[in-house]
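Quick one: structure for this chain?
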Amino acid sequence: MSDTVYMRDAHPLEEGHPLPERHRHRHVPGPQTDAPPDRPGMTGTQAVVKPVFTVLIIGLAFVSVFLAAFHTPTAHRLPVAVAASDSSAALFDVRLQRLAPEAFQIDRYPDETSARQAVEHRQAYAAYLSDGGKPRIVYAGANGPAVSALVAPLAAVPHGDGHKIPVVDILPLSDGDSRGLSVFYASFGLVLAGFLFGQVTYQVAPRLSFGQRVLSLTLFAVIGGLATALIACTAFGAIPGSFLGIMGIITLMAGAVAAATIMLIRTFGPIGVLLGSIFMLVMGNATSGGVLPPDFLPGWLEPLASVMPAGVGVRALDGLAYFHHDGLTRGVIILSAWIAVCVGAVYLLDRVAASTGIAHAAHR
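Got it. Here's what it folds into:
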């Protein structure tokens, strides 16, 4: 007779019997993604009306600001250096005001050398030289066709002996930039790209960490600056001057506009795209001085040329190309400040958002 042994199956959930490894639940984290959570789009009247008004606001702002700046550009007291005797300077001033009232202002200089240097360093648009020699007028054609067209009639201003005053261009535009617009086009292209980068980075990667977003911003600015300098300086020969200097300024300009756009979107959400369009693209490019020097802008727009990224960047590029580094130091400081302030603001907003999320989780 065989012995039969009955063994009770141990239930894995009974006390004293641990859960077999094969039955344990393992949490496998899913892949990290930057995709935003699914959300329904707008419907009804809002979906019909909101895109219309958003785009029209941007378009009409562009039309209004650019027409205000350029529909009838007028020179406002352009500085003209004068190195001449008191009587010659006074006579030249009177005749100048008769020719173009309020278009010029006279700045006296002790000698012809200092007056000429004022033109070369963009402290004056032209110079009247009559310090012991034959009177003449020198100017910088690199200031653009508008300044050249305004200065050329000065040749018709008669001297005391009845002879016309010769007008000489001592800083002409480069052969690759006959209309003086290459700096504007190069800067406008990167300003536009900077705005688009700031917008796209939140569309395709809204959950990037702060460090990753700064790295992406840096890559965009450096590669954009290098590529633009290669195209403008090397391929077309349109912008003379130091290649590395031009690349550096364009890099800072692109980074400043991109950082400002990111900050606006991070702060205001979708409305930040509208704000970035109006301030960075429309206001920035209209006051950049690339089409006309800031002294031709209306009084309410002119101050923006000295603080907006496009304006200080264009002046620094012109300084590198023609005017003995005029505006370079100021441009580097202001553009760097734009980047630092905007990136710092994004960092603070991220920290505040993270702290708020932790606090909400702790109270659940």
